[in-house]
Design brief:
Number of domains: 1
Structural class: alpha+beta
CATH superfamily: Gcn5-related N-acetyltransferase (GNAT)
Helix content: 25-40%
Largest sheet: 8 strands, mixed
CATH architecture: 3-Layer(aba) Sandwich
Strand content: 25-35%
Strand order of the largest sheet: 1-2-3-4-5-6-8-7
CATH class: Alpha Beta
Shape: globular
Amino acid sequence: MTSTFPDITISTERLVLRAFEEADIPELVEMMNDELCAAWTSVPTPYTEADGRDWVLRRAPAERLSGRGLVLAVTELLTQRLVGSVHLHHVDHRTGAAEIGYAVAPWARGEGYAAEAVLAAARWLFGDQKFERLELRTAAANTASQQVALKVGCLSEGVLRNAAIVRSRTEDGGWTDLRTDVIVWGLLPEDLEETGDPTNPLPPEHGGTPRPL
């Protein structure tokens, strides 16, 4: 029997992490067409409405239902606006390990939302799901993502040489693919001791309480 994650909602002081909805598609498309999202992720460029619709209605739900992972939209608690996404993938339910990826909309950067969302997902994963390891990988030149890893308590575990491809703008306004090294970061339950109690990550409907990150 395939292990799957529950369909959950996680609340923090400022954010709500939940499944993507059809109403999120326009903001998702706008977010993924941002230059930084295009440069550091593997999404199609340009990112069309059809791409967004396929992700929200088919591919994201399939991640959870197949047991491969979990995709969550990150929205502001007060405005309900989409400000990013987190994606648990490369999930191994037997060993209790997963990798996390994330993106932040250009209109929400500089607010600490990426770290808040990653930390909320990690607390839930370690507390509710009893996982023992969360991995995060950042391109060598993506210093903003590396700051997120450090802020949530990750430890750098090494460098994978020429392990990924990122995009860079060309002089004519197009894109070119570049090889890059990748820094591997690891987070264990005990690493969260410096950032807060990992034993109470549950959303209210699962018996927990919203908590600041």
